[in-house]
Amino acid sequence: METEVVLETNQLKKYFGAVKAVEDISLSVKRAEIYGFLGPNGSGKTTTISMILGLMRPTAGEVKVFGETVTPEQNSVLKRVGMMVGAPALLPPFTARQNLQMMATMHPDLPESRIDETLKLVDLYPAADRKAKTFSMGMKQRLGIALALLNKPELLILDEPTNGMDPAGMHEIRQLLRSLSSEGITIFLSSHLMHEIEQVCDRVAVVQKGSMVAQGTIAELLSGDPIVSIHTNDTTGTVKVLEKLENARSIETKERFVYVQGIASSQVIEALVQEHVVPEEVSVTRPDLESVFLSLTK
Ligand SMILES: Nc1ncnc2c1ncn2[C@@H]1O[C@H](COP(=O)(O)OP(=O)(O)OP(=O)(O)O)[C@@H](O)[C@H]1O
C-alpha cells in the first residue's frame, strides 16, 4: 500500500510586492516520517509554513493537509496539527504542569490524564512541578513541544526548533523527535542547520530563494558523483585541461586544489599528464551533505 501523504504543497508561491518570498515549492510529507525543510536564512521557510498553517493566502498554488485544501478561511483540518514556530510560548513563572493546564483550557474535550501523558511523552514528568523559568534550554523547548502535542496532533510542524540552542539542548530535541516519530507522529521540521537535519530526518527538501532545489532521502541527496580533487602548482593550467574534457563538470578552484565531478580520476590523470600539467596528488571523495547543500544553495 502507498504510504499516506499527510502534507503536500503544489507549486506554492507567495509574493510581497516585488519580493518573491516563495517562488515554487511542491513537497509531500508521508505519515510518520521526519521531514526536513532545509534552507539558508531568507529562503522562504517561514513564509511556506505560514501558508501551510492557513495564516497567509498563497499568491498561487495550494496546500493540502490530510488531503484537505487549507486556506485562511478553510482550516478546520488544522485541529489535527500541532505547531511551534520560533521560541516556545511558555509562561516562565508557572510550572510545566500549569503551563499545560492553561493550554488545556483551549481544548475542553481533552481528558485530565492527557497532561501527564504529554509530560511523559517529552520526558518532563519528573520536572512537572518545577517552574519553567528554572528549566534548561532543552527542557524549555521540550515544554514548548509538549504544548504543541497536548491536543494529540498527528502532524507536528516545528520552525527552527533548535535555533540558538546549546549542543546539549539540540541533542535532547533530536532524541525527542525520534521518539515522537516512533509513536507514529509525522514531523515537519524547518531549519537552516544542515547537521540538525542530517542527524534526524528521513527525507529532506532543500530550498533556495523560494524554490525547491532538491527533495529526497539523505542517501539520495548524497548519491551524486564522487569529487576528484587535484592538488597542483598550476591551477590555471589544470582548469584549462579539465574544461576540454567531455563530461567534466562543477570545476572549482580553491587555493592549490582543483575539484571536478562527472569524470573518473584515471581520466583526469591521463589528460593532465598528456598536457604536461602534472599534478602533485589526485584523490577522490564523496560529497557530504554540507557540500551538497552548499552547491545546491549557491
Ligand atoms: N511580510 C513580508 N513582506 C515583505 N517581505 C517579506 C515578508 N515576509 C518575508 N519576506 C521576505 O521573504 C523572504 C523569505 O522570508 P522567510 O522569513 O520566509 O525566510 P526563512 O527561510 O524563514 O528565513 P529565516 O530562517 O531567516 O526566518 C525574505 O527575503 C524576507 O525578507
UniProtKB/TrEMBL annotation:
<keyword id="KW-0813">Transport</keyword>
<keyword id="KW-0547">Nucleotide-binding</keyword>
<feature type="domain" description="ABC transporter">
    <location>
        <begin position="7"/>
        <end position="234"/>
    </location>
</feature>
<protein>
    <submittedName>
        <fullName>ABC transporter ATP-binding protein</fullName>
    </submittedName>
</protein>
<dbReference type="InterPro" id="IPR027417">
    <property type="entry name" value="P-loop_NTPase"/>
</dbReference>
<dbReference type="InterPro" id="IPR003593">
    <property type="entry name" value="AAA+_ATPase"/>
</dbReference>
<comment type="similarity">
    <text>Belongs to the ABC transporter superfamily.</text>
</comment>
<dbReference type="Pfam" id="PF00005">
    <property type="entry name" value="ABC_tran"/>
</dbReference>
<dbReference type="GO" id="GO:0016887">
    <property type="term" value="F:ATP hydrolysis activity"/>
</dbReference>
<dbReference type="GO" id="GO:0005524">
    <property type="term" value="F:ATP binding"/>
</dbReference>
<dbReference type="InterPro" id="IPR003439">
    <property type="entry name" value="ABC_transporter-like_ATP-bd"/>
</dbReference>
<keyword id="KW-0067">ATP-binding</keyword>
